[in-house]
Amino acid sequence: MYDALPDTPPDDLEHAIGKAARALMDLQRADGHWVFELEADATIPAEFVLLKHYLGEPEDLELERKIGVYLRRIQGEHGGWALYHGGGFDISASVKAYFALKMIGDDISAPHMARAREAILKAGGAAATNVFTRFQLALYGAGPWNSIPTMPVELILVPRWFPIHLLKMSYWARTVIVPLLVLQVKKPVARNARGVKVEELYQTAVKARPKSAVANRSRFWSGFFAVLDGVLKAVDPYWPKGLRQRAVDRCVAFVTERLNGEDGLGAIYPAMANSVMMFDVLGYGEDHPHRKLARASVERLLVIKDEEAYCQPCVSPVWDTGLVCHALMEAGGAEAERRVDRGLEWLKPLQVLDVKGDWAEARPDVRPGGWAFQYNNAHYPDVDDTAVVAMAMDRAQKRRSSHRYDEAIERGAEWIVGLQSRNGGWGAFDADNDHYYLNNIPFADHGALLDPPTVDVSARCVGLLAQMGVGLDDPRMRAAVGYIEQDQEADGSWFGRWGVNYVYGTWSALCALNAAGVDRAGPCVRRAVDWLVRIQNPDGGWGESCDSYALDYQGYEPAESRASQTAWAVLGLLAAGEADHEATERGIAWLKARQDASGFWPEDHYTGGGFPRVFYLRYHGYSKVFPLWALARYRNLKRSNDRKVGWGL
């Protein structure tokens, strides 16, 4: 039974589009780009507090007070902290948040601390946390080093053919792990001037072992790596000192080459923080240029407001700007076009044309040409951002018969084609990064060690190539479309790696199939449309919980309607030729009815995926960009004759 929708005047669609477009244009920065907050869970701001005390830096009581306000606000009703808004208790996030609050002076007898401690102990206490949390505790002498799986620093010296090699791991894993290798071999202890520890979180009668977040674990490989860990622990004291020093030096060289200015190692918080601690333990003074640069990069991630503050995991200006340009081009109008031009001009010089990053180890003959997610991350551009930016440039210049971006688009497409994996799909940062046995390494209990091809990223690549005129007669395009079609779930949906989840993946796939010219009446598209219609909420919107990333991948988990997910579903239906479908019109009505006075849509929920089951993201821009995009595209298609989306995204 459908809920009744409010009556709205006939011109409200145009009004809603105009209001959202104006509000979005008002957020453009002076230099032409857009950037929105990128919020994760409690772990990043908690780790920032702990980092300051690890280094023994002068106290910033006001900043700590504001971070404390933030951490207390997001504490869950279950007493602990979740990985996303409204989520269930997470032991590792809860231990870090509790430790940080205690570090900044919260009394452990205070009600919120008592509730947190009770929930943590009930779940097995600090000993039940994941590897990276136990590592953090060990740095403070608040947990044993022998509880952490061994990753010998000599790993950085092994040849490329060796089964366990850093280049077989994802970019984020290697940038996080390399400085950790040094920390693990040096085993430093935090300065921790207040002497704060969390002994009370170990005082539990519950015997709970740490749980792995790896899906489809292999009993053979898990057992093999467990035995190997025991061997490594036994031989650790006997490594030749010269070899060990050579390995430490190689780690330092790896980090130093990729320091990335004030944007930091890998441009992600965990790697950046680990690099600071690595330089510290090796005796680099606060004024040493490498350590100073690494420490400055962390500070740039802070979001400081009047009454609270938190630390972002990274920033997303290239992604945000690319998406806004697409939405404003869909909205149309002279002012929107001018704003898009400024955005694209800001993006153009950020293309990486002269750095062969880690991706080149697998594809040495491919020329650079990608864009990164952040302001600067030259060693680690990604194909998702590259495709989104290049599609926006292509669309903008086609609208005015220009060739201004031809070279940038062609270099981006050339790089993307060069990173296509053997199965026809694309990973985000590397080609063929699919050595799944590595997910069974004890150190990889987060299940995010690899960067294999995914449908959502592959869909963007197909969209760009199709928009540039590559057809199904091209073998690479056939392989890519075949990969997408074969990866469709039995219920008609597609898994979404970087957005939550099956709604995101299905929207992405439908856009790609439409752009590639796959028959909209064919079974693949029809099954996807039927699935989207079937999961629509009674109020006309769509919603999906992060719980859909369960270990067994049971599929879509329903949730209350949310703006970004409703927009994705509508955009997916429009790509499938369903502008006139009742489900589409109900989705449009839901979006119109819930636009607020600011011109945007309220959304506290996390609809971005960092690492399934481990790390989720709230892109603050998603509820500003995608609803506008959906409303404008619906309007444009209703005015057209063939109801066909003419772009790759």
Keywords for this entry:
single chain; 649 residues; mainly alpha; Glycosyltransferase; three-stranded antiparallel β-sheet; globular
Overall description:
This protein is mostly helical. The protein has two domains: 12-30 and 454-639, Glycosyltransferase (Alpha/alpha barrel); 39-196 and 212-311, Glycosyltransferase (Alpha/alpha barrel). Helices cover 47% and strands 3% of the residues. It has helices at residues 12-26, 43-55, 61-73, 91-103, 111-122, 131-139, 171-186, 219-235, 241-257, 269-281, 289-299, 317-331, 334-347, 383-399, 406-418, 455-467, 475-486, 502-516, 523-534, 563-575, 582-593, 622-639, and strands spanning 38-39, 302-304, 309-311, 608-611, 615-619. Helix 2 (43-55) crosses helix 4 (91-103), helix 7 (171-186) packs across helix 9 and helix 12 (317-331) packs antiparallel against helix 13. The longest helix is centred in the last third of the chain and has 18 residues, at 622-639. The chain is globular. Mean pLDDT is 93; it is low at 1-10.
